[in-house]
Write a structure and sequence with these properties.
- By secondary structure, the chain is mainly α.
- The chain has twelve helices and two strands, in the order αααααααββααααα.
- A two-stranded antiparallel ribbon has the order 1-2.
- It is elongated.
């Protein structure tokens, strides 16, 4: 009967060429054994319904899975994607921002550079995400097909089957004390941005005026040589911020140790900031004169900028330190 031939064809076309003939004979024999002597087309349909979808039946004859990532590795695969994707995207974005700022010469309008950077930055994130997704999927697809164990039991992050003892290795993190990964990544991004701007401040921070090519940089705010003279101190602050960020990422929740480390980082960065901004050669004299004339300010403009900057910096540092200890001191509720 034609319907039997079609069913066998649908099953065997999904199988390796060398095994199709034998399996076709075996399948035909199975179908005929299930049919009554004087069978009708309705009898055949009933038998084929019992045998099920040809694709599922064919998968039973195969030694390899008919899915890309099966249940055994799916949980690990998804967890690794959640960890690696944002890290790779942030690193890619940070390197792009740093490269853009360091390579900026001041010849092109800032607005154009900013708009181009947003577009390229989005493309970089998407490109990195696609590559991470592709290669991680390929790796897990290979692992899936080289695994000789036929079990579909999901594996844990240690590539072992779950037991109740695994719960002893999982920390309980209340929502109120948790440190979101996005907070850590934004912190790293902020560090990359301010560091890049700091080392190229003479061509980025200052007075912009409308010109033939849009906004044109006409007057720097800072004396770049003075900024670079504090290079060792700035590098220490950058290192501390990166260390605190990765420590937060490792722990995943606020503790008194992290809060203390965070306080030490803010203390050092506040001292370095005050030392740098206290240098009376830091601001470009032409910039100070420009601001004085523009706003008709009487008195010492540098002093206004100094106290305003110090107050703002210390205020935000104090808020972050307070929030850190407040969350660290929260009791664990289960």
């Amino acid at each position: 009967m034609r319907i039997i031939d079609l069913y066998i064809q649908e099953v065997t076309r999904r199988l390796p060429e060398k095994s199709r003939k034998d399996i076709a004979l075996e399948l035909r024999s199975t179908i005929e054994d299930m049919l009554p002597d004087d069978y009708t087309e309705e009898d055949v349909k009933t038998v084929l319904e019992k045998l099920g979808n040809p694709a599922i039946l064919a998968s039973g004859y195969l030694d390899r899975p008919m899915h890309l990532i099966g249940p055994r590795y799916f949980d690990i695969y998804i967890n690794l994607l959640k960890i690696i994707l944002p890290i790779a995207a942030v690193i890619s974005l940070i390197s792009f921002i740093a490269n853009t700022i360091f390579s900026y010469t001041g010849e092109e309008a800032v607005l154009n550079v900013l708009l181009n950077s947003i577009g390229i930055g989005i493309w970089r994130i998407l490109s990195t995400g696609i590559q991470v997704f592709f290669w991680l999927t390929v790796v897990f697809a290979i692992i899936e097909r080289t695994d000789r164990q036929k079990s579909n039991t999901p594996l844990t992050a240690c590539f072992k089957e779950w037991t109740p003892d695994d719960l002893n290795h999982i920390p309980y993190i209340p929502k109120e004390k948790a440190i979101p990964k996005v907070e850590v990544f934004l912190g790293l991004l902020w560090t990359a941005m301010w560091a890049s701007v700091y080392f190229n401040a003479s061509s980025l921070l200052g007075v912009y005026e409308n010109g033939n090519n849009g906004l044109e940089f006409v007057l720097p705010t800072f004396n770049q040589e003075v900024l670079l003279s504090y290079l060792p101190l700035v590098v220490i602050v950058i290192g501390l911020e990166i260390a605190v960020a990765f420590y937060k990422l490792h722990k995943g929740q606020w503790t008194r140790k992290i809060a203390s480390f965070n306080t030490a980082m803010h203390g050092v960065s506040s001292i370095v900031f005050i030392i740098i901004i206290s240098n009376n050669q830091l601001f470009n004299p032409a910039f100070v004169s420009y601001i004085t004339d523009l706003f008709s300010i009487t008195g010492d403009v540098s002093a206004w900028i100094y106290w305003g900057a110090v107050f703002t910096f210390l205020l935000f540092a104090a808020i972050d330190v307070y929030q850190g200890f407040r969350k660290a001191n929260l009791k664990n509720f289960k």
